[in-house]
Design a protein that fits this description.
alpha+beta
Length: about 180
């Protein structure tokens, strides 16, 4: 707990176990938060850069927050996101519907996902979105302070990428701080 002006604020901490398959077209996710029942999420494997004001509704509701991973408007700061690729992005179906230029995996240019900023953006966004959804379910409001997540993460990789790059991919997530600003 820390002081912020005269108001006391708390950081909310969650524990997550997640399996994420960042596919070329779709992300498939199974996760459990704080020992709860497993949940399944899916979203298109794409983001779109934006520069306009937040797309979050003025008054988010339960329906919106249940699918927040497909509505997320965020800036992902992670060592897995190259400096040139940083900036505000919208995720999943929101990205598809936006009409903005999508950032997708280029299946014709075999860049391993551990070297593609999109993989880190999607992974960190999914973890952050799931945590925000849990917070909403518990409080029916958006947080005023940080949410931190300790995540045991399993990721699916193509076998050739796993054989050649599993250590690189593992190190991308194990080292450094990964922050998602929503």
């Amino acid at each position: 707990m820390r002081k912020k002006g005269d108001l006391e604020t708390m950081t909310t901490n969650y524990n997550m176990i997640a399996g994420i398959d960042i596919g070329n077209g779709y992300c498939k996710v199974k996760l459990s938060m704080d020992g709860g029942a497993p949940e399944v999420l899916d979203l298109p494997s794409q983001v779109s850069y934006i520069s306009n004001s937040s797309w979050l509704p003025v008054e988010p509701d339960d329906t919106y927050m249940e699918d927040i991973v497909n509505e997320l408007d965020a800036d992902v700061n992670s060592n897995g996101v190259k400096p040139l690729d940083r900036g505000r992005v919208i995720f999943g179906r929101r990205s598809v519907a936006s009409g903005n230029t999508p950032v997708i995996f280029d299946i014709n240019d075999h860049v391993p996902k551990c070297d593609d900023s999109l993989a880190a953006q999607l992974t960190c966004g999914i973890v952050a979105g799931a945590a925000l959804r849990k917070y909403w379910r518990e409080n029916h409001t958006l947080p005023e302070d940080k949410i931190t997540v300790d995540c045991n993460l399993g990721v699916a990789l193509p076998i050739n990428d796993f054989m050649a790059y599993h250590t690189t991919y593992e190190n991308m997530f194990l080292h450094g701080i990964h922050e998602v600003h929503i």
